Amino acid sequence: MDKPMNVCVLVGSLRKASLNGMLANALIWLAPSSMKLDIVEIGQLPLYNEDLETAAPPEQWTAFRQRVKAADAVLFVSPEYNRSVPAVLKNALDVGSRPYGSSVWDRKPGAIVSSSPGAIGGFGANHHLRQSLVFLNVRTMQQPEAYVSHVDKLFDEHGKLAGDGTRKFLQEYMQAFSNWVQTIRSD
Ligand code: FNR
């Protein structure tokens, strides 16, 4: 069997009890064995400032860039903040996109899962993120889409997914993502 694909998971919330963190862990658990997923932290990245883009940029930027560059694909799991992408996630996109000409996102297969305790499932964040990913040339999976609504009702007190319907949907989503990454890599 081929080595599993190495997939970075970026979570757009820094909160310890983040529902998106729980969702990311559920997606990792439900993913097919063709994928090995790891959450890559983004909260430690200094805010992007071009003045710091010297011969010795912040070490957190360098480590993050190297980690994403080495990945076969990237999965974004994010809440919506004010109908858009949380600043911490946008900062990670910006950090990875520079220095000009060395973006770590270029041609990387990707997928987006957004969520919300509300009914719209983070649609605004999902599509604002897609807008940046178009420019960054991330090969973002278009279908299936994942807007997870009422995310605060999905987990039991141990942080395990409570409903069979959601589990099946997320499992199929991850299988589709694995197929997508394989298709893009053989392109
Ligand atoms: C939110 N929340 C929110 N929810 C939503 O559906 N649409 C939105 O535009 C916003 N805006 C927003 C802004 C800010 C600054 C915060 C802190 C929150 C609510 C949000 O979905 C909820 O707090 C989630 O639980 C956040 O995700 P985590 O931290 O649980 O992963």
Automatic annotation (TrEMBL):
GO terms for molecular function: FMN binding; oxidoreductase activity. Signal peptide: none annotated. InterPro entries: Flavoprotein-like_sf, FMN_Rdtase-like_dom, NAD(P)H-dep_reductase. Residues 5-150 form the NADPH-dependent FMN reductase-like domain. GO terms for cellular component: cytosol. This is Chromate reductase. It comes from Bradyrhizobium erythrophlei. The lineage of its organism: Bacteria, Pseudomonadati, Pseudomonadota, Alphaproteobacteria, Hyphomicrobiales.
